[in-house]
Amino acid sequence: MISGITPGTLLQHVSEERLVDTARELVDISSPTGHELEMAEHMRALFAELGLSIAWQEVEQDRPNVVGTLAGEGGGRSLMFNGHMDTSYSGSEPHLRGIGFRPSAVVKEGRVWGLGISNMKGALACYLEAIRALIDSGLRLRGDVTIAAVVGEIEKTQWGEEFRGRDYRGYAAGSRHLVTHGVVPDMCVLGEPTEQRIVLGHYGAMWCRIGVAGPFVHTAFSEGRLPENSIVRAREVLDSVLEWVPDWEERASYRGLRGVVNVGAVRGGFPWRLSRTPGRTDLFLDVRVPPTMPMQDARRAFDGLVRDVRRRHPDWGIDSDVYVTAPGAEISEDHPLVEAIDRGHSTVFGAPPERDAVRWFSDASALTRYGVATVNYGTSSGLPGPEGENLDVEGLVRIAKVYALVAADVCGVAE
Length: 415
What we know:
Strands 1-2-6-3-7-15 form a 6-stranded mixed β-sheet, with helices on both faces. The chain has a 4-stranded antiparallel β-sheet with strand order 10-11-9-12, with helices on one face. A 3-stranded antiparallel β-sheet has the order 4-5-16. Strand 1 and strand 2 (63-70) form a beta hairpin. The protein is α/β, with parallel strands linked by helices. The chain is 33% helix and 22% strand. Helix 4 (117-137) packs across helix 10 (393-411) and helix 6 (230-251) packs antiparallel against helix 7 (295-312). The protein is elongated and about 85 Å long. It contains 10 helices and 16 strands. It has helices spanning 7-11, 16-27, 37-50, 117-137, 173-180, 230-251, 295-312, 336-349, 364-368, 393-411, and strands at 53-60, 63-70, 79-84, 106-108, 111-113, 145-150, 187-190, 198-202, 204-213, 261-268, 280-289, 319-326, 329-330, 355-358, 373-376, 390-392.
């Protein structure tokens, strides 16, 4: 039970129609990473309608975080609902044609479809509906409740000369700015798609490059030199990586999950000029790092791999770099926020939520480094199928109800 309220009194103010309308509005605004301004302006207008105090944080030009706060009466803990506005895709990718990959919402058969609905505009809509329900119910809370709509969460980053600028500045860029500029609540809920489970821990990511050199010559003069070709050499380098992976998988185990390494990209040569051998070929690795492992240890493990490759091939010009180190995050199962979500979820769903650990990254990585205890907990339809992102309307409504209860529980109800 939540002291000071009857749950039904609060939950009756959660409106499915209003929630779905909000979700549709948000999906209809295109907001890929680097282009969140229109979405932020819309969130600011919605915060203003609710009478929230508003902070506008210019992370970089035309990329603002927008923060709305329902002030408490004092004496309670503060809670933030945090959600990123940027979407995983732009909606113009030729290989993603389903209705759920487009920034245009469709509601059919009890589901909302559209780009960003599950990651994570549906969560933002749930946050807003939870705050509306608290206001409409007349409850006065002791602690502050904040909604932070942030830029730049999607797992992407700048690299090299080609991939630069705001389109590539993700990996918690917005939430990192948030906590370094005054927004440091006691606790935070991230409504990432978790299948209504409480995520007690998630992996971080280390992105690495291993490069190999080779001669740069005209094809006409390359007879007998194929083994020196940097792409051919990269095949042997890749074999060394694949030999290293099983050891990493074991070493990086966490909560029943094994570590994982993805060979995410290969770059070498010139598609527009195949008459030249490639002077360099690079392999790119996404190495998932458990939250219990310091990034320095992960870096040392990768450096050991590179040294081994270099010993095997001392004349191949092997070089490397690490260009993302985004730590994981975890929270104790007996933390008050976890307990509050347990109570709210049990009230709405009739049973406590399951626990989970995941290998994906979230903004909890940045928030927890500033002492903001953070839980990932939200609704989800699972990974997008060929038709793209979609969420069950009933799931959205239930999660909004849980969020309203969690806010009242964490922040406390004023007398």
